[in-house]
Write the structure tokens for this entry.
Amino acid sequence: MKDFATLINALDSTNKTALKQEAISQFLQVASNQDKAWFLALFTGKKPKRNVHSALMKIWAMESAQIPEWLFIESYSAVGDLGETISLLLPPPTHQIDIPLSEWMQRIIALKDKTEDEKKALVLDAWDSLDAIERFIFNKLLGGSFRIGVSSKTLINTLAKFYDLDASAVTHSMMGQWDPQEVDFEQLIHGHYTNTQLSKPYPFCLAYALEKELLDLGAPQDWLVENKWDGIRGQFIKRNDEVFIWSRGEELVTDQFPEVKDELLRWKGDFVIDGEILVYRDGHVLNFNELQKRLNRKTISKKMMEELPIAVFVYDLLEWQGEDWRGKSLKDRRPKLIELLSKNPSHRIVLSEQIIFEDWSQLPEIRERAREINSEGLMLKNQSSPYHTGRKKGDWWKWKLDPRTIDAVLIYAQKGSGRRSAYYTDYTFAVRKEGKLVTIAKAYSGLTDKEIQEVSRFIAKNVVEKFGPVRTVKPELVFELAFEGIGFSSRHKSGVALRFPRILRWRKDKKVDDIDDIEDLKKLIT
């Protein structure tokens, strides 16, 4: 645990990739195989479920620190993170124990079947034997909210360099379902489990945003152009009469789309295909907000399947009859994909339509009409390209529509965590509705460090109310927000939800009277 705490502290202390990689390498040198397996699991989102409610942690912490609730609330408001607040308030440990990370994880998982008194005993003993940074990590693991600022690319490249492996091979080895309590880390990284898992997906091929002039791409006939759909990118695997559906986020989502699973089970052959999951009704792709209604549900009712019918627009063929086709060119993969679809005709799983054009000058107008069909823009794929692991500049380009924008006013704020814990960095914005303000979006990015400090000073001087760590702010600061999509939503007070909202710029030239009205936003919904 001490080695893991040293790693987390080092990662949280720098923004430089080289220093993050160095810290990870140092941990890999000293950690056991079991701890490395848990390190990899935690860093790739395989965290255990929360087995101790945060309300209990708060009560136990106040008892241990012997402080009243008002002081805990004020401390929490200042820090902005429950786990960090508790780690700072607790009295110094009376003793120290050096238990490996893997054993701590086993103890945390075992809490599932413990009584409240047994849970309390373990937590109090842990708090009394760990230093501040170890307590902080323990609290985050206990609460199921462990997150760390290391990109998957940085992690993969570090592992590849440390073990002298190809980065794409490491990526492939890490994907899929594996339990840190059951695998051997060294064997996992070296691909020992790769061929034994029937459900194993491939790393997705991704695109860079278009940064060239169209004429610089060469001959139009060398490129495949199709719509960029706003759904869930997925891999659809059929091997040995079993079907698995993986999202790009490496989640197994088979049970969320039973009609797609049943359809693929009827298909002939073994294959892995890449495509987009969309809600498709009466010949039209519906807004992403409709698709969200189908996500993360334990059961999908017949009524929901009828009201929100799913279709898959297929992009690519990755594997055919057990053979990896990713190294073949797109102009070779595409005909085989078309053949597969023609042998298994379906209204639910269809080919993503190729956009036919003769001259590059035709594409800008086609792109501008993308929103009419709920497309985000265009994808441009070189016909000679293999199916890469991750991104490779030059072969696949995404040419998205320019984001839409609105003017909104800041009404709520909360302090960040880690290096941002001293500043208000989490903002909630509102637009006008019938003369009142109604929340429209949250945003966390887009301001410079200098602007964050300036906004924080304004917030500190203009707090209207306090709700735990959240501050209600005098509505004066106007910001221009950019977003990718918009749709109706019953889960939001405004009745509208924005897709990928972020701060574009601080509009110091505008007053609260200049912000947008919710009715104008609704007119943007197709």
About this structure: The chain has three domains: 2-142, 205-400, 404-522. Residues 205-400 form a domain with the D-amino Acid Aminotransferase; Chain A, domain 1 fold (CATH 3.30.470.30). The CA atoms of residues 167 and 446 lie 31 Å apart. The chain has a mean pLDDT of 89.
